[in-house]
What we know:
The protein is of the alpha/beta class. The chain has 2 domains: 2-151, 3-Layer(aba) Sandwich (Rossmann fold); 159-363, Rossmann fold. It has helices at 20-34, 58-68, 81-88, 112-119, 138-142, 153-167, 182-192, 206-212, 224-239, 281-292, 313-324, 334-342, 357-364, 369-372; strands at residues 2-4, 11-12, 15-16, 39-42, 72-74, 95-97, 125-127, 149-151, 173-177, 198-201, 243-245, 250-253, 262-265, 275-279, 296-300, 328-331, 351-352, 376-380. A 7-stranded parallel β-sheet has the order 5-6-4-1-7-8-18. The protein has a 6-stranded parallel β-sheet with strand order 11-10-9-15-16-17, with helices on both faces. It has a 3-stranded antiparallel β-sheet with strand order 13-12-14. Strand 5, helix 3 (81-88) and strand 6 (95-97) form a beta-alpha-beta unit. Helix 6 (153-167) crosses helix 13 (357-364), helix 7 runs parallel beside helix 9 (224-239) and helix 8 (206-212) crosses helix 9. The radius of gyration is 22 Å and the shape is elongated. It starts with a strand and ends with a strand.
Amino acid sequence: MLVRADLNVPLHDRVVGDDTRIRASLPTIELLRDRGASIVLVSHLGRPKGSDPAFSMKPVGERLGELLGIEVKQAPAVVGEEVSAMASALAPGEVLLLENSRYEPGETKNDPELAEALASLADVYVNDAFGTAHRAHATTEGVAHHLPGYAGLLLEREVSELTAVRDDPQRPLVVVLGGAKVTDKLGVIDRFLGFAEEILIGGAMCFSFFKAEGRDTGSSLVEAEGVESARKVLAEAEKSDTMLELPEDLCLGRAFDADTETRLLNGVDVPEEWMGLDIGSNTIANFAKRIERAGTVFWNGPMGAFELEPFAGGTRAIAEAVASTPAHTVVGGGDSVAALKQFGLADAVDWLSTGGGASLELMEGRDLPGVEALLDASEVAGG
């Protein structure tokens, strides 16, 4: 079986720094091995320019082998005669990891010849890489046109969890959005205005809304192209049944630095030479109260510069609120997931999505090429 996994993990000195995505791929791999399949694994890693040794899959294969308790064979390339021979020689239960799929320029171009070469390595295709399902690449979309295609356990669960929030959530539905750019979240906001009971907005994206309201933003990060979008959202929110909540107070810093001078602002008009870097205590209390009484919570994006300790309080408090609410909780986006792990709360939410852009696009209602290409996106691998 050819299994497209999402093994795009951080490496430090060619050692895996965070194996979360590797662990997320284990259930599908173990299920297929238990059923006697030999597995050819393919994934991308980073954004190499050509065959860069710094982006080799070898450290990933070593860590995967440790977790599986077996030797994971390492292919010298993505496709080719030697790779084909290694795939053909696999015994039931053995695993072969191909080299970084982005070593091949045809990967991101969805090159038909590359897709066909990959398909020749197996008789069944399983896509378990939700994090790349929104990309029409050779390993995520092209190869599915040459083999019977199925969803892996992770991809199936991702689609199930996110579409349940999007289409049939337990009420009330509270959507918490943060991060830097309004334009990144505009599709999600449009989807949930008039559908969710409440949308809570924090992070630097709130300053595009404040600028649209004519407020002072000081030297805060403002996405220029997001201001007009924010203005339109505010107008639509006035006409909808959804309550759109912006921060009512802020934590400010002189500079984007952990050692900078800080102050609390009871209000949201930021003085010159100051920047808003976190939500304030009143906003925290308000957001936490709304999360506590929700039926479903979807959270994407931090509330501030949580990587800097003086400005981590808002994101930490929202993470704690999401972790403790009796609501069904789904968290998507790399920064939100990173925050939960940083605060030791990753195991306290119902679902942590492995897809950043993919989760947002699915929540917007857009088709994901890697899902659409499968014969049946709801069928479990091997099932």
